[in-house]
Amino acid sequence: MTEHISEAVIRRLPGYYRHLRELEDQGIKQVSSHELGERMHQTPSLIRQDINSFGGFGRQGYGYDVSELKTCIGSILNLQQPHRMIIIGAGSIGSAVAKYQSFIREGFQTLAMFDINPEKTGTLFDEIPILSIDDLELFLQLHPVDIAVLALPGSEAQMMLERLIASGVQAIWNFAPVDLVYDEQAISVVNVHLSDSLQVLSYKMAHREDVIPSSEDQANGKPENRG
Amino acid sequence: MTEHISEAVIRRLPGYYRHLRELEDQGIKQVSSHELGERMHQTPSLIRQDINSFGGFGRQGYGYDVSELKTCIGSILNLQQPHRMIIIGAGSIGSAVAKYQSFIREGFQTLAMFDINPEKTGTLFDEIPILSIDDLELFLQLHPVDIAVLALPGSEAQMMLERLIASGVQAIWNFAPVDLVYDEQAISVVNVHLSDSLQVLSYKMAHREDVIPSSEDQANGKPENRG
Questions:
Q1: Fewer beta carbons within 10 angstroms: which end of chain B, N or C?
Q2: Which chain B residue has its CA at the smallest distance from A224's CA?
Q3: What is the ipTM of this complex?
Q4: Which of B204, B210, B220 to mutate to test the interface with A (most CBs of A within 10 A)?
Q5: Do A77 and B209 touch (CB under 8 A)?
């Protein structure tokens, strides 16, 4: 069912999920591609194309059933079951991730944080134990997790990735400012490169009049419109 | 020069910049599209296409001059001059942004943080003053800034955006988990939706065999390869 969903569509799925949850919370049962597009700053045709690409639940003239579409997207995003995480690095980024409340609501549970600093290890942060990085492999044997958050210096990220793969971790959420080298069949990686994001903002600020709205979406739309 | 750079290319520019800086630090003068592609997990043809799209500095058979290309991309990203920022919200996300060292190296300077909590206001965090949100407009009159970081609850983000636009802020780096409504001519916005990023990781973990490498890039490449 979910084969051949493009990266660009995958990146938009959480936005769909968020807006559909808000609509559901407001008691709204049906939504048109036009309304979803307005909420998401996208064209109705892109919305229809995205939703068609993973199955197509719309009925011409009636729009989409909010709950049905939300359940479908939640299932594609693998949100129907809880995920267990650990955080490598109890510095400011690791602590911010540990405290981020909306993850918890969505079923992402942090079991432990790991650090090298003996002043931090052995303590609790927001009820989450901070353990020594030396105990990582033993902990993962006893408490397998899906996801490891890398919130440590870039110079240590690659070596840590290899330890985590060897311990059976399935996915890495990488905040270290490096591009990791890995086999995409062995592990899934999503980067949050904060500096990159801030530089994109710097670009947009300087070239506000040049930015083409939705140019990425054009690339997924009609090729004849390009160039 | 920089007209019509697509969103997908803009998102890759900071990665080019980071790799070119590393090459420059290693004393490397020339780099081929093949070598850059290997470092960035992209095809050489995409690399050439990206770089062509903002001017084209390659010489067939010789590759790119590392310093020249880095300077060019730095200039497109508007990094040649320092940027002044404020952070709205001195909670865990705001504090993590304030402490993030690599921003400072790249010329992004945090002048102040703002909060509503009287136990925080009037103190220093890592030498950055935490001021009352009531003093925001006065502060911005005396110390104009380019960028405001929104690290506050989603329910307060839209109202704060409007206060910041009225005070002449040019760009918003939004960590609040909401989609802001704004006029793209009036202000530039880049979102860091952490929950969305984590959900994309959840998707990739569940569908590892389905993920098409570089599918976004195909969308920017040859339209005849699609569908």
A1: C
A2: B223
A3: 0.86
A4: B204
A5: no
